Amino acid sequence: MGANIYRAFVLLSVLSFVSCDLNLQEDEPCVTDGLNGTCVGIFRCPSASLSYLYADAGFSKEKFNYPGLPDICSYKNNEPVVCCTECDISDAERYRDTAIGPFATLTNAKGPVARTKCLDYFHRLPYPCRGQGNFEVKKIWKEDKKCHDYMIKVALVVGGRSAQRWEFPHMALLGYGGDEKSAQWLCGGTVISERFILTAAHCISTRALGNVSYAALGILKRTDPKELWNIHKIKRIIPHPEYNPPSKYHDIALLETEAEINFAKNLLPACLDTGKDNPRMAEASGWGRLGHMMGLADTLQVVNLQEFEETECATLFPPHRHLKHGYDHEKQMCYGNHREIIDTCEGDSGGPLQTNQFKCQYTVVGVTSFGKDCGVLGSPGMYTRVSHYLPWIEGIVWPEETKERRKQDDLWLDRWLKFRFANKYSPYVVIKSVSTKRSSSLAAERGKKMAAAKVFLFFLFNFLFCVNCQLGLDEGAPCITTGLRGVCVNVFKCNSAALTYLYGNAGFNLEQYKIPPLPEICSYKDNEPVVCCTDCDVGQEKYRNFTIGANGFMVPKKDSVAWEKCYEYFHKLPFGCRFPGYFTIDKTWLHHLKCHNHTFTPGGVGFAVGGRDAKRWEFPHVALLGYGEDVDSAQWLCGGSVISERFILTAAHCSSTRLLGSIQYAALGLLRRTDPKENWKIYKIKRIINHPEYKPPSKYHDIALLETENEIAFGQDLLPACLYTGGDPIRFADASGWGRLGHRQALADTLQVVNLEEFQRSECSTIYKPHRHLTNGYDHSKQMCYGSRIEVIDTCEGDSGGPLQYGSEGCYQTVIGVTSYGKDCGILGSAGMYTRVSYYVPWIEGIVWPEEVEKRKQKQNQWWDKWIQWN
């Protein structure tokens, strides 16, 4: 599949374009359609990122007016690097965290839970459902600048109209009375999730009929056959805790249904408005009275209403006994018509005031609350403002998602306090974040108090411990920190701050490792701190897509499946585990530029040169391999490395012996051969997979995988190793095994460790010249050689298959090589040969983590497909 798409991609590139700048790296110059551009990540090219987002949301390029994707230079982290000709090529990636709503509106993908759930509902509908409206993304050539400018427009459709079947699939008609057949259907409501309906608090009960008991969904007319009515029993009624009738304030409530609501084409949830701005025009819908003292409507009615200004609303709704303080713009809104007699009326209460550009889902901005006599020219109706009550709604309707979002918010405060105190105390003074657990009855008020308490703490600690904390400043604002001028930017646009954040979050003590403290925090945006940055290279997100490995090395987040799995294993350990790594982060003030230059020098953890006994649990991934059918009489010879719950990495020449046959067992979690057998964790080998190009007695491709019969249970004495995926050489590395202690000497009882030095390519080629088992001599791309020039230390017979690794004492090691072969062991200046793991990572991944690899391939193929579709 991938090969076919690639061929199609290349063919279309040749046929369709003057210049498809493939194989160009980021920030290299390129040419597209005869225009000069620069290769940048797709989200740094605004019009290209918009084209991608709209296409990915299902909006057809032919039907809607937006440009195609530019020529693709290459790929980086599974995202295209495109040839961009725009004037404002940006490091800000302004649309990186943007999603396209069902109505083509741009929305922050990291926004409130309600917005996230809205997008979730929209994208998992069981049938095709996309907008039919009007928007455009235009590119305009600026001759003076020799680059493109771009603009985006999204248009609203306004005007009164009648409801059609399925036009408002979120509408609910509420029934009162104990018996479904004789129920009275009065107020309206809005389906907002699989279990909840939004309505007005004054609709929850009537004097004569009691509480609301039923909700009829998916209907257009009251006279529709009852078999078309999708009736749900109401299980729980939740008015807002501050609603106190006959007062008109906080007139909002939630109804929980007894059974889950099944979405379909005629029954869909509405989105909830999360913004602060009022739409100029909005639609109200309901089955209320057709006019003052007239009968209830049979067919769902729709009126298009105009926003009234705050001053008009305050004049029309002055204080009175049911509205003590008059119109409250923060919690209410009023809509009507200045020129026509159109309005909501009795029976419309609880129904939605909504906006919609296209079909499918609507966005509810208000809940119909009350008004004066309906149908009076120039007199608007009053609506409860949904966005004000969003936290209360989210806490009830989506409690798990809301709790998770709060945890993230609390985590940021914890991190900030740790970073701030790290400058003054060691170890960290950990101040627990303020708990935000709420009772259902006091949810909104307690939420406000908790938020206020957290803000108070934040300002208090800044006041006590900061010289100049520029809180309340937006991104891009000038700031001052420790007497130096800076600019407020996202933490990842300030590279020294990004390093501090990454290492601090990975558990490295900032003071102990002399890591600069986090700069003063200006504010927060999208759950990330905006810091006062004095770096010279501010704006370049060098470390956005990196994480800190268990050993202090920086690794790309999306470098490979192998690294993703390593990171996953590391972070789900049931016990604390961190490394004391060696690295330096230095900030140097450049007087002529008036800014800081920062240098980052990563490193592994070194050991003293020379062999030694390993410590217990120091190498929890090392395996001792057993040969022979009976475990009690098995011969334990080669070594290996646990790399996942089912697989062990070893040398292909270890997979079998002439006398004892194939490997049968793997002993894990032990230090000595003489450890009591009850302490040995022995796993039966189910499958042996030699590299397909391994052809003994040749020494090339000497690598194999062993699959265990049962899943390996990780513990403090048994952990997987990471696989090295980088191309940079590791100067010093450790080899470990239970092999012979020297030429013709006995096998070691205790696991041995030797610290070896990398030999240069030219040295390896001299030591390992072509011969009958190495026809082409040393192959640097697939092999590596390590040894010592000053001491007689080396791996030896019995160490084969074991790891060459770097790391630190305890926890995780990273395997860079597999012990393959050598000359007589222990000869001064002679290096041993190791199979280079990074070369074989794709082969390993395809066997050990096939599902993750397939997902990655599918994602890559989707990019090819989209590129072909766009162009």
From TrEMBL:
| Name assigned to this protein | Uncharacterized protein LOC111364294
State the family named in the UniProt similarity comment for this chain.
Answer: Belongs to the peptidase S1 family. CLIP subfamily.
Q: Which Pfam families match?
A: Trypsin
Judging by the UniProt lineage, the source's domain of life is Eukaryota
Report whether Iron-sulfur shows up as a keyword of the record: no
List keywords of the entry alphabetically. Disulfide bond, Fibrinolytic toxin, Glycoprotein, Hemostasis impairing toxin, Hydrolase, Protease, Serine protease, Signal, Toxin
Query: Which Gene3D superfamilies does the protein's record reference?
Result: Trypsin-like serine proteases
Question: What Gene Ontology terms describe what this protein does at the molecular function level?
Answer: serine-type endopeptidase activity; toxin activity
Q: Where is the Clip domain?
A: 29-84
Q: Can you quote a single GO CC term?
A: extracellular region
Q: Its function?
A: Fibrinolytic activity; shows preferential cleavage of Arg-Gly bonds in all three fibrinogen chains. Contact with the caterpillars causes severe bleeding, due the anticoagulant effect of the protein.
Q: Where does the UniProt annotation place the signal sequence?
A: 1-20
Record domain Peptidase S1: where: 157-398, 608-849
Task: Tell me the compartments it is located in.
Answer: Secreted, Extracellular space
Query: What is the species of this protein?
Result: Spodoptera litura
A GO biological process held by the record = proteolysis
